[in-house]
Design brief:
Blueprint lengths: L2 H17 L24 H15 L3 H14 L29 H18 L5 H14 L21 H7 L7 H9 L5 H8 L6 E3 L17 H10 L8 E3 L11 H7 L6 H8 L4 H9 L1 H15 L40
Antiparallel strand pairs: 1-2
The structure holds protoporphyrin IX containing FE (HEM) and 2-acetamido-2-deoxy-beta-D-glucopyranose (4 copies).
Length: about 350
């Protein structure tokens, strides 16, 4: 490469860093932008952060609960809020969801309450899927993780997520790292994304059902025996209903200790531990275990990428006036909104 094109490229890099406030960001999907609601709903982000700070101070579990909602939303039919619809397989009030899919019911209530406050202040111009993405960001930041800017402008879908679509599109806790890698690749997410996003398991909890297969009938030899012993107390049989933290070291903090646990063979889910067992993926796990700054950088990049999976933009979909229901009548609320949002600058 000659020097002038090299300096042109470094200039591009510098300006994109300046534009994004020094945050390393994947290319944004057309129709999304960081400033989408800056002029039409300036109170949006402070409303969410202030409300969640208050919620988490008395109910910490809502932080991992909200991050997981955003993950399920994006993997099933794209980040279109379908997981928030009553009647979707792991949606609010859904009794039929497999136990490993059960999202915390209060997380749905919180998102709808925020939608109510935001729509009262700004009108029905912010989608439920954008609110879920912002909640996921604040769940991480308010738990000790990185802060970052979220591309906005998503629209809400009108299609329920069926049980089959949900099971087909969510990764399975029993999977090997190789299977997970193929699964993520199919969604446009690479190995770095897989490992960084699995860091979502640095807080929150799991039910026995998601890992008893590693204890009974025979114990998984990759499991640290002392750790396995404590797990057997939480889940004395293969039908126990106990719960235990996903990150045994710092269960309520968003940090890199989840990776330190994997290095010490104290990962709870088979799908997590196998990232360390797999020789091609192990170096990424080790790097994150040794360098939290690196993990935070990579996590921010990957969660933004995940947050853009198959999004609806422009005049697609609608802005739901209740996150748990599709709008029944197509009113002016579902159109004519886009002019107010600033369009992406690329
Ligand atoms: C890599 C594939 C993944 C698999 C196989 C997986 C599977 C699981 C399972 C089985 C649980 C425990 C559910 C239970 O038994 O109650 C769980 C919890 C959780 N997952 Fe994942 N997950 C994956 C990726 C992700 C990603 C990408 C995120 C977000 C970035 C995420 C965020 C969470 C959170 C925060 C919890 C705790 C939820 C709570 O405490 O309410 N997971 N996951
Ligand atoms: C769901 O998947 C199962 C098993 O693959 C299949 O038998 C069933 O017909 C599917 N149901 C629908 C509604 O697609
Ligand atoms: C949830 O559990 C069911 C039954 O054990 C299993 O078929 C399914 O693949 C699991 N799904 C996920 C996402 O872990
Ligand atoms: C639990 O273990 C028993 C005895 O080994 C077995 O018959 C049963 O299918 C297992 N149940 C589950 C949910 O894995
Ligand atoms: C950790 O990662 C950061 C961010 O990539 C990097 O700047 C720093 O040099 C790394 N630290 C060490 C000790 O490797």
């Amino acid at each position: 490469m000659n020097t002038s094109s090299a300096s042109f490229i470094s200039l591009l890099l510098v300006s994109s860093l300046l534009l994004t406030n020094a945050q390393t960001t994947p290319p944004l999907i057309r129709g999304l932008s960081f400033d989408f609601h800056r002029t039409n709903c300036p109170s949006l982000e402070t409303t969410i952060r202030d409300y969640l700070r208050e919620i988490f101070s008395s109910d910490f579990g809502m932080a991992p609960g909200l991050l997981r909602v955003h993950f399920h939303d994006c993997f099933v039919q794209g980040c279109d809020g379908s997981v928030l619809l009553a009647g979707s397989a792991s949606g609010p009030a859904e009794q039929e969801a497999p136990p490993n899919l059960t999202l915390r019911p209060r997380a749905f209530v919180i998102i709808n309450e925020l939608r109510n406050r935001i729509h009262r202040a700004c009108g029905a111009i912010v989608s439920c899927s954008d609110i879920a993405a912002l909640c996921a960001r604040d769940a991480v930041f308010l738990s000790g993780g990185p802060d970052y800017r979220v591309p906005l402008g998503r629209r809400d879908g009108v299609t329920l997520a069926t049980v089959n679509a949900t099971l087909d599109n969510l990764p399975f806790f029993g999977s090997s790292a190789r299977e997970l890698a193929a699964f993520f690749l199919n969604k446009g997410l690479d190995l770095n994304d897989l490992v960084a996003l699995s860091g979502g398991h640095t807080f929150g909890r799991s039910n026995c059902a998601s890992f008893v297969g590693r204890l009974y009938p025979t114990q998984d030899p990759t499991l640290d025996p002392i750790f396995a012993e404590t797990l057997r107390r939480v889940c004395p049989s293969n039908t126990s209903s106990g719960v235990t933290p996903l990150d045994v070291r710092t269960p309520n903090i968003f940090d890199n200790q989840f990776y330190v646990a994997l290095v010490n063979r104290q990962g709870l889910l088979n799908s997590d531990q196998d990232l360390f067992t797999d020789p091609t993926i192990r170096p990424i796990v080790t790097r994150f275990a040794n360098n939290q700054t690196l993990f935070f950088e990579r996590y921010v990049f990957s969660i933004i990428k995940m947050g853009m999976l198959n999004v609806l933009t422009g005049t697609q979909g609608q802005i739901r006036t209740d996150c748990s229901r599709r709008n029944t009548v197509t009113t002016h609320l579902t159109t004519g909104v886009d002019e107010q949002g600033e369009s992406a600058a690329f």
